[in-house]
Design goal:
The chain is α+β, with helices and mostly antiparallel strands. The chain has five helices and ten strands.
Length: 198
């Protein structure tokens, strides 16, 4: 299978000022919050032995994936999240963070990543479920979007194809707007879509 990337430019006057984010197709179960909710600043372990909170990503739109190696739907959607991460790799005000609930810690996570040949630089471990409970994550997978001010603006519970055009457009909406759906100031920004050719 050959994967190619296409870049489509849309005027922000149409895309960014929309009252509601585009929720269709593979992300049709995304729930956009009517009011942003402050994301808890609970420190989690990084693979390097340090700690991070969402404060470390202030000023960026953050896509957060709660997952575990034993979660079947998580395993299926992980490659699509990896491709989404690549699509937005050069966007300065974007970050993708995975939060694992694995009790076996980094050993289990590393084995899983090697088997699937995946790399996620921003990986956190929530083996005691402190952040998961604070954010009311009751099942896996869950993807939450956090705005530049550190507020959760919506989430999708269950698996999705995060490299689909609909998912990329949803993320781009939050990159192009603040929580209130107001134009962030740029007149033209790229929406990246993957065209799959068999």
């Amino acid at each position: 299978m050959l994967v190619t990337a296409a870049v489509v430019f849309l005027p922000l006057a149409t895309a960014a000022r929309a009252a509601e984010p585009p929720i269709t197709g593979s992300v049709q179960n995304f729930i956009a919050f009517s009011e942003p909710i402050a994301a808890p600043l609970i420190p989690l372990d990084t693979k390097s032995g340090g700690e991070q909170t969402f404060e470390d990503y202030r000023g960026k739109v953050v896509v957060v994936n709660f997952w575990a190696t034993w979660c079947g739907p998580c395993v299926r959607e992980m490659p699509t999240l990896a491709r989404m991460q690549e699509i937005f790799a050069d966007v300065d005000d974007f970050a993708f963070v995975i939060v694992s609930q694995d009790r076996g810690g980094w050993k289990d996570i590393d084995r899983f990543m090697r088997r699937l040949k995946l790399v996620f630089p921003n990986s956190l471990l929530d083996d005691k479920l402190t952040l998961s409970r604070a954010m009311h994550v009751r099942s896996l997978p869950v993807v939450a979007i956090i705005d530049r001010q550190g507020n959760e603006v919506g989430r999708l519970v269950g698996g999705a194809e995060w490299d689909s055009p609909e998912a990329i457009e949803l993320i781009q909406f939050y990159l192009d707007t603040d929580a209130g759906g107001v134009d962030s100031g740029s007149s033209l920004r790229p929406i990246y879509c993957e065209a799959m050719k068999r």
